[in-house]
Design goal:
Distance between the termini: 47 Å
Shape: globular
Helix content: 10-25%
Number of strands: 34
Oligomer: single chain
C-alpha cells in the first residue's frame, strides 16, 4: 500500500491539470453604523506554524485540505470577523487574503439572520450581504478590508452596513437577539501561481450577537445526505466552492423574489420566459428550488392544467429525471444531531414546502382555473401554516410518503402490504447439468417489525397454480454459466453459450412446484426447499464454469389480502448464489463471478434499483447474468407490422394477430413507447435501420452514466424489442450524472478499476451478426447463434474507456496503441489482433497513467449560474 501511495504521488507530479474555479464577485453595500455586538465564543488557538499558500506546489495544492474557525465577530457596523485557516498538517495557511484588484481573490463573506416563522410557518434565513439596491438579491461580498496576520489568522471588515435602522427599505434590519450565520468561502485560483484550491472550504459560524447560546436553529438536511448522490456539492452543482448546505440557504431564501416578476401559466399550463416567482413562491428559495429540481419531470401540474416550461436561471425543473421514488423524504431529511429539524417534513408541514412538489395545488380563494383547491377548514384561503396540522399530522404525512418497497431510508410500507425476503443457501449440480437449489422465501405477513417466517408452498402439484393464498404470480430462477469462447477456456464473464441472445435460462417456482419443470422437494426445519430444476432450457452447460442461480421476480398481493384496496406488486431484493461460493479450496474453487460494483453504492442514488419492471432488484449480481458481453440491443429484430399496428390504433385494441393470447391489448405504455420510437423513425417501420449498441452491463452503465458529459455529442442510443409490451427507443443523452463522474468509487469497490483485467474477460458485442443483415429473419437467426465471427465487437479494455472517452482524439490514441483492429471490428479480426493491444503498459496499476490515480485527480469546478 505504501509503495502504491508513493507511486501515486509520483504520477500526480508528472500530470498537469487545469482546474477552473468560478468567479462572479458581488459587491456589498454601505450604510449607518449599528450597535456594538459582543465577541464570539473563544475558539481553538491560532496556528503556531504557518506557510504562505503561494509556496505550495501544484501537487500540494491538489492534496490541500483546509480547515478553519471563526474566533470572534463584532458587529458595530460594519461587522469585523477574526478567523484562522489551517491545512491537514495543522500549519497555518497565510496569503489567502490577497487582492488582485479591489476584491479578494480567494475569499467571500456572507452574513444572515434567522427570522422565526409566524402562524406556524417555518423559520427563514434573511441575508444582509449582496443587497446593494432595491432590485438586488442575497449574495456574498469580498471587497472589504482584509488583514493577513501572516500566521494563518485573518481579520476581515465588511463593507456591508448592518444597522438596526437601515437607511434603505431594501436593507435587512439588524436584530442582535436573533440567530445569525456568518459564512466564509475560500476557493478559486491563486493569482500568483495559477494553481486552484482543489478542495474549497466553507466556514460556517452560527452565533447570537447579543450573547448567549444559539437555541433557534433551522437544520433540516445535512451536506452528507446530498453528497451521497452528488459526490461533492460545489463540484457537481453550480457555484463552485459552495460545499455546505448551511451555506446554500444564506443566499437561496425568499429574498430571491426581490426585483423579479411573477410568472403565470397560460390556459394550457405553459410557463414562458424566466420563472422566478410561480404560485406566489420564489423559485430560488431553497425548499422550493430543491423540491422542484428533485420532483423534476414528475411535477404534477393541475387537473387539466399540467404546469410546464419552468426556467429558473436556465434550469428546467420539469425536465429533470429523478433516479428514485420522490416520496422517499428520508433520503434527504432525517432528524439527527447534525439536522435537529430533519423531521420537519412531517412534523411542521407548510404550504411552501409541500406546494413545491404538489404544484397542482392552490391554497388561495378563489382557486385559479385548473388548479386543485386546498383551502382552510372553513373553505376560505389557507392563510396560515398552523392550519395544516389540523388535517396533516406527522403520522398522516408519513403515511402519504411511504414507499411501496421497504428500503433503507423508508423501511415502512403502507398498512397491510406483505414484504418478502429471498435467500439461496447453496447451489449444487446433479445429473451433470441440472441445478439443485436450496432456497427459502421469508414473509413478514404484513406485520411491521415482526420476525419474518418461511413461506410454504402447496404439497399437491395440482394446487400450484396459486403458490401462496392471497397472491398471484411467481418468483423465478435464472440459470447462468460460462463456456469456452473465442479461444478462451475459462471466460471471466457469463456467456450462457447456446442460448438465444446469450440470455440465461428461466423457470418459475410455479413450474417447479407443479412438476412440469422441476422437483420442489419438502422444506427442512428452517424452511429451506432443496429443488431440482429439470427444465431443459434452464440447465448449466456441460463442463461450464461460473455456474450461478438467481431468485428474482415477485408475487403480486391480491386486492383484499390483508385489507389492501388494490393489487400490489411485492418486489423483493434478488438473491444470487454460485456453486462453491465462498470456497477457498483449490480443488473446489468458488465459481462466483468477480464483483467490481457495490450494490449499496448504487442505492445512494437509486435507493432500490428496480430493473425490468421490478423483476431484478437492487443486487448488481443479478444484472450481470443477463447483461453479458454477447448481448446487444434487440430492436433490429422487431416486427415492423406490430409497430405500425400499435402506432395506428388506440389503447385497448386487441393484439390477437401478434400474440398467442386473445386477451392481449395495446397498453398505454406500449402506445407511448411506439410514439417515442416513430417520432424518430416514422412509419412504415423499418427496424433494420434502428440503432444497435452493446448491452453488456459495463458498457450499459458507463455509457448511460457518462451520457451527459461524453467527450463528443455522440449519443448512446438503441432500440429494445419487447414485442406486444412495446418497442422502446432509448436516447441516454438525457441522463446527467449527479455525482463526480471520474470518482470511480462512487460505484466501484476499491481495487477494481486500475486497468488490470482478469484473464478471460470477453469482448463486448456492439452489433450481433454484423452490419450486413438485410432481413428480420437474418437478425433473428444471428441473435439465436451468438457468438459469431461476423459480430461487431470492441475489446474489453477499450469498451471500458470508450464509454466516456469517445472523441476522435481518444479513439485515435487507443488505435495507435494496439487497438486499431479491436474497436468496432468483426469478431474474427478482434481475435486475431487483441494480443497487440498495449493499453496496460500505461493504464494499469502502478504505471504512468494508472486509472485508479488519474480518475481521482480534480475536475474543473462548474460554472456558476446567477439567477
Amino acid at each position: 500500500m505504501k509503495d502504491r501511495l508513493v507511486r501515486r504521488l509520483f504520477m500526480v507530479l508528472m500530470l498537469l491539470l487545469a482546474v477552473i474555479a468560478t468567479g462572479g464577485l458581488m459587491i456589498g453595500c454601505a450604510g449607518d453604523d449599528g450597535s456594538q455586538g459582543p465577541a464570539g465564543a473563544p475558539g481553538a488557538d491560532a496556528p503556531t506554524v504557518s506557510i504562505p499558500v503561494d509556496n505550495l506546489t501544484q501537487p500540494e495544492m491538489e492534496q490541500l485540505v483546509l480547515t478553519g474557525q471563526v474566533t470572534s465577530v463584532a458587529i458595530a457596523s460594519p461587522p469585523v470577523v477574526n478567523f484562522w485557516v489551517k491545512d491537514q498538517f495543522g500549519r497555518g495557511i497565510s496569503g489567502l487574503g490577497n487582492k488582485a484588484t479591489t476584491s479578494l481573490d480567494n475569499m467571500r463573506f456572507a452574513l444572515a439572520k434567522l427570522v422565526p416563522g409566524v402562524q406556524g410557518s417555518p423559520d427563514n434565513w434573511v441575508t444582509y450581504t449582496g443587497l446593494t439596491s432595491a432590485i438586488s438579491r442575497p449574495s456574498t461580498e469580498n471587497n472589504g478590508t482584509m488583514v493577513d496576520n501572516g500566521n494563518g489568522s485573518y481579520t476581515y471588515t465588511f463593507t456591508t452596513n448592518v444597522s438596526t435602522s437601515p437607511t434603505n427599505t431594501w436593507e435587512t434590519v439588524y436584530e442582535p437577539s436573533r440567530t445569525h450565520r456568518l459564512v466564509i468561502q475560500i476557493s478559486g485560483t491563486l493569482a500568483a501561481s495559477g494553481y486552484a484550491i482543489t478542495n474549497p472550504l466553507d466556514i460556517i459560524y452560527d452565533f447570537v450577537p447579543a450573547g448567549g447560546a444559539v437555541t433557534s436553529k433551522r437544520e433540516i438536511v445535512t451536506t452528507q445526505a446530498c453528497n451521497d448522490c452528488h459526490g461533492k456539492l460545489g463540484t457537481t452543482t453550480p457555484h463552485g466552492g459552495r460545499t455546505d448546505t448551511r451555506y446554500c440557504v444564506v443566499c437561496h431564501n425568499d429574498q430571491r423574489r426581490i426585483g423579479r416578476t411573477v410568472s403565470s401559466p397560460s390556459s394550457t399550463g405553459l410557463l414562458t420566459g424566466s420563472t422566478y416567482i410561480v404560485g406566489g413562491e420564489a423559485q430560488g428559495n431553497m425548499p422550493v428550488m430543491i423540491h422542484k429540481i428533485h420532483k423534476g419531470e414528475g411535477l404534477i401540474g393541475g387537473v387539466g392544467l399540467a404546469l410546464s416550461g419552468y426556467n429558473y436561471g436556465g434550469v428546467a425543473f420539469d425536465k429533470i429525471p429523478y433516479p428514485q421514488d420522490i416520496t422517499n423524504c428520508r433520503r434527504c431529511h432525517q432528524q439527527s444531531a447534525s439536522a435537529p429539524q430533519g423531521d420537519n417534513w412531517k412534523n411542521k408541514p407548510s404550504r411552501r414546502a409541500c406546494g413545491a412538489c404538489h404544484d397542482n395545488v392552490s391554497f388561495d380563494d378563489p382557486t385559479p382555473t385548473g388548479f386543485v383547491p386546498h383551502t382552510g377548514p372553513t373553505g376560505t384561503a389557507l392563510n396560515g401554516d398552523f392550519l395544516c396540522v389540523g388535517c396533516h399530522d406527522a403520522s398522516k404525512i408519513e403515511g402519504y410518503h411511504l414507499t411501496i418497497n421497504p428500503t433503507k431510508n423508508n423501511p415502512s410500507v403502507p398498512a397491510g402490504l406483505v414484504n418478502f425476503t429471498y435467500e439461496i443457501s447453496s447451489v449444487t449440480v446433479t445429473n451433470s447439468t441440472q441445478p439443485l437449489v436450496k432456497f427459502r422465501i421469508l414473509s413478514d405477513n404484513g406485520v411491521a417489525g415482526s420476525t419474518p417466517t418461511p413461506v410454504s408452498f402447496p404439497t399437491s402439484t395440482s394446487a400450484c397454480g396459486t403458490l401462496l393464498a392471497g397472491f398471484t404470480g411467481s418468483p423465478s430462477f435464472l440459470v447462468a454459466y460460462a463456456l469456452p469462447q473465442d479461444g478462451i477456456t475459462s471466460p471471466a464473464d457469463h456467456n450462457n453459450l447456446g442460448k438465444v441472445a446469450a440470455q440465461p435460462g428461466s423457470v418459475s417456482i410455479t413450474n417447479i412446484c407443479d412438476g412440469t419443470r422441476g422437483v420442489l422437494g419438502t422444506p427442512d426445519s428452517s424452511g429451506y426447499y432443496t429443488s431440482r430444476i429439470t427444465y431443459s432450457q434452464a440447465q448449466f452447460g456441460a463442463s461450464s464454469k461460473l455456474r450461478t442461480v438467481a431468485l428474482q421476480g415477485y408475487f403480486t398481493q391480491a386486492a383484499g389480502t390483508n385489507g389492501i384496496a388494490a393489487a400490489t406488486a411485492r418486489h423483493a431484493v434478488s438473491a444470487v448464489r454460485s456453486i462453491n461460493e465462498g470456497s477457498t479450496s483449490s480443488s473446489n474453487p468458488s465459481e462466483a463471478r468477480r464483483e467490481v460494483v457495490d450494490s449499496a453504492k448504487c442505492a445512494n442514488c437509486h435507493e432500490w434499483f428496480e430493473g425490468h419492471g421490478g423483476n431484478r432488484v437492487y443486487n448488481i449480481r443479478v444484472c450481470v447474468l443477463c447483461h453479458v458481453p454477447n448481448l446487444s440491443s434487440s430492436g433490429r429484430g422487431a416486427d415492423p407490422a406490430l409497430i405500425d399496428f400499435i402506432a395506428a390504433n388506440p389503447v385497448g385494441t386487441p393484439l390477437g394477430a401478434f400474440s398467442s393470447s386473445t386477451t392481449t391489448l395495446i397498453t398505454q405504455e406500449a402506445k407511448d413507447a411506439v410514439s417515442d420510437l416513430t417520432a424518430v423513425y416514422p412509419t412504415p417501420a423499418n427496424p433494420l435501420i434502428y440503432p444497435e449498441a452493446a448491452q453488456n452491463l459495463k458498457d450499459l452503465i458507463h455509457r448511460t452514466h457518462a451520457a451527459g458529459i461524453r467527450e463528443t455529442t455522440n449519443p448512446y442510443v438503441f432500440v429494445r424489442d419487447r414485442s406486444t409490451s412495446g418497442i422502446y427507443y432509448y436516447d441516454m443523452s438525457i441522463v446527467e450524472f449527479p455525482g463526480i463522474i471520474n470518482l470511480c468509487e462512487t460505484c466501484h469497490k476499491p481495487g477494481t478499476y486500475d486497468g488490470t483485467l482478469p484473464t478471460g474477460v470477453l469482448p463486448s458485442v456492439e452489433v450481433t451478426g454484423g452490419n450486413g443483415l438485410v432481413s428480420r429473419a437474418a437478425v433473428t437467426a444471428a441473435r439465436a447463434a451468438v457468438p459469431a465471427a461476423a459480430d461487431i465487437v470492441t475489446s474489453p479494455f477499450v469498451a471500458t474507456c470508450i464509454g466516456c472517452h469517445d472523441s476522435a482524439l481518444s479513439v485515435s490514441h487507443m488505435k495507435q496503441n494496439g487497438a486499431l483492429n479491436t474497436i468496432l471490428v468483426d469478431r474474427a479480426t478482434y481475435s486475431a489482433n487483441v494480443a497487440n493491444e498495449t493499453c496496460v503498459l500505461c493504464h494499469s496499476a502502478g504505471k504512468v497513467a494508472d486509472p485508479a490515480v488519474v480518475h481521482i485527480l480534480p475536475l474543473a469546478l462548474p460554472a456558476a449560474i446567477t439567477p
